[in-house]
Amino acid sequence: MGNINISNISCNYNVCLDDLYEVDWFSEKNWKIYISNEEYKNNYSIKKGKFILSNMKDVNIILNKKININEKNIKNLLLPFFFNFKSKIEFNILINLSNNNNETISINNINNIQNNIFTFNIKCFENKIYLNDIIFENNNKNLLNIFFNFEHKNILSSKIVFIQDNNKEKKDIKEINDYKEDKEDKENYILQKNNLYYDNEHIYLNIIIQINKLDSDEYIKLNL
Fold first, then answer.
1. Number of structural domains found in the chain
2. Which end of the chain is more exposed for a tag (fewer CB within 10 A), N or C?
3. Dihedral (C-alpha) 49, 96, 118, 134: value to the nearest 10 degrees?
4. Which domain range does residue 168 map to?
């Protein structure tokens, strides 16, 4: 299991559920790691679930894991995704669910992986975070809390909540229409979306990082 206190985070976001699947820590044992350029295959470290990148350019990285919702009769999946960075040049982080294992997808052609069950793009540069057309300042408490529900056959319901200070008391979330941001909530970013999927047995989670240039004194840190 991951390194987030699931009892706290689930109850805070009104998802106190017994059938909640929590994704494992980042590790070379539990995740497959693909790097498009062999030159940078050692330019990362993993420490207690924290995946740290530095000193690389023009590279795509994919962290890939199978989610066994069918085997474990999972109805709900929580992805508490912390990240922070120091980078002048733009980079992208994509959170993706796919019915295809990444072994069949070219890491050099990320577009092939984007049009699957679910993809959400985080664009970052110059200490700014861009979630669609909403801009946030980067800090050490960036939390992208993604909740997936598989209860209804072939319909994936997802809720994304971005919070910059996890110690703040969460505001009540009002009803939001499909794939519309709550722009009135200035402290938090909230998004809901429904997607169709057709394969319960083969669902893969991909964390994709697209880097243009990351100097030796810069970094990207991802944490589950």
1. 1
2. N
3. 80
4. 6-223
CB 108 within 8 A of CB 60: yes
CATH number at residue 208: 2.60.120
Which tens digit of pLDDT belongs to each residue from 121-139?
999 999 999 988 788 899 8
Give backbone dihedrals phi and psi of 14, rounded to 5 degrees, phi first: 60, 35
State the amino acid at position 182 in one-letter form. D
1 lies in some domain? no
Which segments of 138-218 are extended strands (E)?
A: 142-149, 155-163, 188-196, 203-214
155: nearest Cα among 123, 196, 214: 196
pLDDT for the residue numbered 109? 61
Tokens of 61: 């990285």
Q: In this structure, are strands 50-53 and 91-98 parallel, antiparallel, or unpaired?
A: unpaired
